[in-house]
Structure formats: structure tokens, C-alpha cells
């Protein structure tokens, strides 16, 4: 049953739902998201729309299954999978924490880059400032409420700014629509698809909103319909941002401009709007970085709670340590652009394992009780597992090639 009560808590519940949607969406809309979308659009042009469309379909299938089962059981991802097979949830937790930590290194790197663009400070100094701001949020008494508000505001700011840039580049929308269904080639789009899936629902990200709902007490099968809408809205919010950025980049490259390989996303904004565009990029990537630092740290640490009660008791301080450690790693390790692309691909390899376990759990009455998980949704999830398994296999070659470049 839900811990939420009717009456004056309805507004609070709406905030929590909206916060969960944007926590998931902004967790995926990080520096890696901006870099990957820009790099792949420049490489595949309008045909990249097919990868975006395919990834959105897979993402919805994955997230609907996971959020529904988690909310019905009132248990976090690692606990559900441990009930499916003892030890599996613990393994997934370790993989997700490692993946989340790797992602967070890229996130703080993006925060440093954003601060550098906006104020001219070094990337390292900017990363430290971004990390401190994230830490302050978790130190506040009403950290959960503040987190919900921050991710919603920054999410709207990012989407609005990228949407404005898109309109200024006059992209070939008609061509993009056609090639989203009939691309020039399919095989070469496998790596982009698994990278997008990994960056959107891979690893910790697909659990971000679900765990937030559980922590806020939104549990029980009476909330299935509401949670299904929230899960879909989260993916669609990410999809809107992805399409806006895709079209913005497409408009620039089809006009004959060459993007700066050292900072491809920034060059799109600068080409479109000059120095003002470059500053807008700084705001967008910083907002993307800060929200992703928050989402990565919060969700990754939530996977540690099952190991020992001390992890739950001191979760706030573990989150702070998680952010601090990620920042220190970035300060002493380079290659941010390569890391941002590769981590997205690696994260996608975790999804078949996590989603597969949740699908099995959905058919066990000892886990979900009298809740009936729709057969069509189960089939949707199985399809997502198969696709990501195949795509994950092929992505290994692509990861190796990217690292060697």
C-alpha cells in the first residue's frame, strides 16, 4: 500500500511524480547525452533518426516493465532480482554502482566544461564547484523535495534552450522524418542504438525514477496506471530533448559546417548563434551535468542499501562521498569526450541482465502477489532484452575502436 494519504498531500504527490519523471530524464540528459547525440548525428546525418526512434521504443518497453514491477512490490531493483535468484541483485547492484560511478566522472567533467564556458574558470575548478553545489542539495533537511524541484527546473531550461537553437539552424525535417523509418543502412546503426539505450535506461538510469517513487512511498498496484504514465513521460521527455538536439546538429552539418572534434556539441551552439550560442551551450551542459550528478549519486547509492543497514542509515554521506570521489577522479584523469561515449555503450550492456530479472519477477506471485503483469508488456520487455543482447554484442567492437582512436 502507498504511504501517501489523500487531501493536502495530493500536491506533494504530484511533485514527487513529476520529480521522478525529470530525475530519470535529466539523469540520462547528461554530458554524455549531448556528446553522443552530436557525434552520431554528424556521422550518420538524417539516418541517425532511425537510431533515436528505435531506442525510444526499446526504452519505453524496458522502463514500463521495471517501474511497474518495482512500484507494485515496493522493493528496489536489487531486492526484486535477489528474490528471483539469490545473489543476482547483489551482482547487479555492484555493476550499477560501478557504471554509475563511471558515468558520474563524465558528469562532473561536463559540469567543469560548462563552468569553463560560462565563467572562464578551469574545467577542474568548475567540476569542483558543480560537485559542491550537488553536495549542498543532499545536505539540506528537505533534500528530496529540493532535488525534485531542481531537476524539473533545470530540465525545462535545457529543453527550452536546445529547442530554440534547433529552430535557428533550419534543419531538413522532412528528410529526417523519412530516414527515421528508412535509413541509408541498418548495421552501422547498431552501436548508436545500444549507446542511446545505455545512456537512457541502461545501468542505474532506468531505476532512478522508480527508486525515487519507492522512497517517497508511492507503492502498491493501485498506482500502476499513474506510474505507467510517469515512466512513459520520462522516456518521451528524454526523446524530445534528443530530437531537438539531433535536428539542431543536423541543421548545422547539412549546411556544410565542420564540428570541432574536441568539443562537438559546443561548436553546434556556437555556429548557430555565435558567442551567445556558446554561452547557451555552457548553461545547457552545466545544467545537464548537475542534474546527472544528482541522479547518478542518488540512484547508485540506493543500490547499496540492501547490503547493510548502515548504508541506508548513512546514505546521505555515502552520496556525498560518491560525488567527491567522482570529482577527484576527473581532476586527475583526462579524455572526457572518449569516456562519455564509451561509458554509454558499456552501460547498455547491463540492461539485458536487469530487465531480464525483472521480467521473471513479474511472473512470480511470491514477488508481485495478485498483480497481473500484462502479457503484451512482458513480450515488449522480452523483445527489448533480445535486441539489447544482440546490440550489446556488436557494440563491443565499436567500443574498442572508439578507445583506440
Automatic annotation (TrEMBL):
One of its GO terms (biological process) is iron ion transmembrane transport. The chain crosses the membrane at residues 16-34, 46-71, 83-105, 117-140, 149-169, 189-209, 230-257, 277-304, 316-333, 339-362, 374-396. GO terms for molecular function: cadmium ion transmembrane transporter activity; manganese ion transmembrane transporter activity. Pfam families: Nramp. It is found in: Membrane. It is a multi-pass membrane protein. GO terms for cellular component: plasma membrane. Its main location: membrane. It comes from the Bacteria. Keywords: Membrane, Transmembrane, Transmembrane helix. PANTHER family: SOLUTE CARRIER PROTEIN FAMILY 11 MEMBER (PTHR11706), TRANSPORTER PROTEIN (PTHR11706:SF2). This is Iron transporter. The lineage of its organism: Bacteria, Bacillati, Bacillota, Bacilli, Bacillales.
